[in-house]
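User: When convenient, might I ask for sequence and C-alpha cells for a protein?

AI:
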Amino acid sequence: MKIFRSTCTTLVVCALALCAGTRLRAQTASPEVRREIIDVRNQWMAAEMKKDIPYLDGLMAPEFVVGNSQGQVMDKAHYLESQARPDRILHIGEGRDVTVSDYGDVAILTESLTLQASDKGVPFGGDFRFVRVFVKKDGHWHPVLAQGTPITHK
C-alpha cells in the first residue's frame, strides 16, 4: 500500500509538471474542450468494455500510466495486456460530477462512476473517483494518466 501511495503521488507530481510548460493557472475548460475530453473519455470506456485493444493502443500516449481501482499501477503495455484478457470483464457506468480543467495542451477530467467488474473470476467494483490527465498532440487528445480511488460511503 505504501508503494502504491508513493507511486500515485509521483504520478500526480508528473502530471502537474506537464502543466508547468503551459499556462500555470487552471481554467474551467471551454465548452469545446469539455466536449472533446468527454468524448475521448466515452470512447475510451466503450473500447475497454468491448476489448478494442487496437483502438486503446492508438488512443493512449506512449507514456500512459494507470493506477487502477484494484490498486495496481501499470504502464501502457501492461494496461493493454490486462484489458485484452478474456477473464477481465468491465461494466462502467456513466460519469457523475464531471469536471474538466484546461491548461492549454493538458486537460484534467475528474469524475465519479460506478464500476461492476471481475478479474480472473474475482468480482470487484463499487463507486470510484477517477482523475484522468490528457495531453493534446498533433491535434488529438491522448490519455497520459488515470487514477481510480474507491469512494467510501459512511
Q: What stands out?
A: Strands lie at 27-28, 65-67, 73-75, 88-92, 96-102, 106-119, 122-137, 140-150.
